[in-house]
Amino acid sequence: MTAQLDSMYPTTVDFGTLDEIHRAAGAALPADVFDFVEGGAGREITLRANRDAFDRWRILPDPMSGVANPSTRTSVLGMTLETPILTAPFGGDAMFHLDGHLAVARAVQRHGTVTIVPEAGSYSYEQIRAVAPEAARIAQLHPFAHAPAVAERIQRAGYSALCVTVDCPIGGFRTRNMANRFAPDMRQFGGNLTGTDGAPGVAEVFGQLLKHGAAAWNWTDLRQAAAQFRLPWIAKGVLTPDAAERSLAAGASAIVVSNHGGRQLDPAPASLDMLPRIRAAVGPELPILFDSGIRTGSDVFLALALGASAVVIGRAAIYGLAAAGAAGVSRVLELLTDELRTLMTLSGAATIDQLDATRLIGAQS
Ligand SMILES: Cc1cc2nc3c(=O)[nH]c(=O)nc-3n(C[C@H](O)[C@H](O)[C@H](O)COP(=O)(O)O)c2cc1C
Q1: Binding residue per annotation — 174?
Q2: Which residues contact 7 (CB under 8 A, 6 or more apart)?
Q3: Which of 113, 144, 180, 219 is 20 to 30 A off residue 348, Cα-Cα?
Q4: Probe ligand 1: pick from 87, 104, 170, 263, max atoms within 8 Å of CB?
Q5: A Pfam family matched by this chain, by name (predicted)?
Q6: Is the model more confident about 293 or about 202?
Q7: Helices 315-347 and 18-28, axial angle in degrees (round to 10)
Q8: pTM of this prediction exceeds 0.90
Q9: Ligand 1 atom 5, closest CA
């Protein structure tokens, strides 16, 4: 007798697609909180451009390539990633799910990759590392006066690298939040801002981020502070070859090509549009993480083929978190990775380092 076939697609999963997860997040969150997540700065030209940029590329099929089981494993700064997808630092995470980054880190650990733990999150660096030490490897901080003390604290907590956000001297001009008179409980951004040695006050950090005219650092300030860091650091928020070169001159070991998901300068260029020229400027060796607009496995493929070493997901992870906590984030990582693996087979790429621009063609060509 013929063996029974499973159904063509899994029928028992909570979420069949990433779109379903997005919709579930929208249903789970109050409208002003969902706007805080979804929104960008200004007229949201950059927010839209980040998505549109992916539509201008096509992946070339490679029939009969013989690739059956492509490997999504790679490594960044000595950290092994089973899938080339990290989760982004995002503040206020308990607004999206009570377990916030604790849930994100657990899900990320399940998938053998790394989460970038935020300074302005609802839980402390130490709490998140305690629940998922294999995933909580990179911690984000802002380049303000307290940075050397925070870097020291992050190192003591056992992290492997720092991520310094260089594109956020003040918060962007977030029009949806302004229209909503958005007034979240600021304690949800305060997981790292109380008590512990070296912790800046809430007023110090948010005074900087929320009020115009705060003293912002320049590259020299950052280089001097970074000279005291004992961990390698990644500059997050690089959108031009010039900023990439300045980051390296200040001592960065890697960069995140990012426009902060369209939440800071608007109109700024799409992150994907800037990626190839930044890769060309810094050469093939520098680890480049990429974020802003990743929503599907094909986006991951395109970013890697255009020069990224790995990608970082912000909103896509938040959708999973809001929809179903750790299980939701895990499903997002699973769907992104499954699609990436499928595309690798169809395009004949056996490994992540085989993804390059020779596999793509511009949509207009
Ligand atoms: C709700 C929210 C909060 C964020 N908070 C921070 C933050 O505290 N620090 C930071 O460097 N980036 C922050 N980001 C930006 C993300 O780290 C990341 O750059 C961005 O979300 C990537 O774009 P994507 O959402 O399209 O994936 C935040 C993003 C969102 C959506």
Answers
A1: yes
A2: none
A3: 113
A4: 263
A5: FMN_dh
A6: 293
A7: 180
A8: yes
A9: 90
